[in-house]
Design goal:
By secondary structure, this protein is an alpha+beta fold. It has five helices and four strands, in the order H-H-H-E-H-E-E-H-E.
Length: 153
């Protein structure tokens, strides 16, 4: 079933504008949609309340912030320590994402580093996190697609 079935054309158009130019404001959203300002605001509020519009936070570029190296760290962990392990990983500032996964490993983290020596320090911090039993790492060479969601509209 298509999860976007609850979105009408106005919602899809509004989300497209938000993706293209989130800083324009409600007045401009309403102008571009051809609806009243109150209607645009009500639509935004509804989309936020439903979690469709999950955040207004800007997306920062880690490389531009001085962290050009990225890696995916797959972690095998002690089964009863999921929360403790994830909490420990969240304390490592270079860990940007932590995801539970099904398969050979239990968790995948996306990490960044300033250089190779720093990446080794990040790996050491991960390995010393309570509950981590074994890791496998893949260095990211270049992002080819995403992150993206527009095609779901």
């Amino acid at each position: 079933m298509d999860p976007s079935h609850n979105l009408d054309d106005t919602d899809r158009r509004l989300l497209g504008i938000v993706l293209d130019d989130p800083r324009v404001g409600v007045r401009e959203f309403s102008r571009r949609l051809g609806v009243a300002r109150g209607t645009a605001q009500a639509r935004l509020d509804k989309l936020e309340a439903r979690g469709v519009l999950a955040t207004w936070s800007p997306r920062l570029d880690a490389a531009a912030l001085g962290y050009p190296l990225g890696a995916l760290v797959h972690i095998q962990m002690a089964q009863a320590r999921l929360e403790e392990t994830c909490d420990g990983l969240a304390q490592i500032r270079e860990v940007l994402e932590v995801m539970s996964v099904a398969g050979e490993f239990d968790i995948v983290c996306r990490v960044v580093a300033r250089d190779h020596a720093h990446l080794e320090e990040v790996f050491s911090a991960i390995i010393s996190t309570p509950g981590v039993l074994r890791t496998r790492t893949e260095v990211i060479l270049r992002q080819r697609v995403g992150p993206r969601v527009r095609q779901l509209l």
